[in-house]
Amino acid sequence: MKKVALVTGGSSGLGLELARRLGNLGYIIYLLARNQERLSLAVNELRTEGIEADGFPIDVLDERGLLSVREELCTLYSKIDYLVLNAGIVKSKLFSSYEESADLRQQLDVNLWGTILPTYVMLPLLKPGAKVLMVSSGGGLTGIAGYAAYCASKAGIVNFGEALRRELLCKKISVYVACPGDFDSPMAQEAEKEAPRWMKKQSSAKLMKAVDVAGKILTKAVGSRFLILPAGEVKMLMLLKRLPGTLSDKILDAILPRPAASDT
Q: Other CB atoms closer than 10 Å to residue 181's CB: what's the count?
């Protein structure tokens, strides 16, 4: 029987590239995304490449919708072999600049609860040998000015994934959390547009492409490895975080963007 993969946030960017990679490995692909038009385009794109694919126009926060997806996949296959939790949003602005708390809550809801809820709903379909891949961020490993709510939500994914991994070890279900750095994606492009000048990247280094990030992530999502760091910049952040407290803070304060008094 063929293996089945369900990918949330799969209609574009990293989610679509992860789906494509898995499809090329022989998985039957099911994409889950809110936007019906983009979802249909993504499914058709995969099909033209010879990948068996379909989609569900479901919000990751819609529990009833997720339950209907589970019921359909249970009827068809009785299993999910690879669950990819990639749905997310980002807003780049100072915490004090938010006019409505709802904008803060939305990032926590979509990024964190939008990872936890689909995992909770789909867990009964995960059998021994199945894999769960959650997409966090370098911002889930260290706080970055201008991304307070985003970093909080992504840090939650890291800790949720680590806890779930230990719970599922006895069932031989693998859990991985990927923490990519900056890469070229529709979401990153939108965040760059709305970011104030002090937040914009100082480096002229070319951003990684989503297809390359997807390849690195899936290559590393094997064995007992838990945390996947596909970018050198994120590995460096992890090393700096391990330095003695004040030294780590001084170095990170010097290299990460932060506002001046005039920006607040």
A: 19
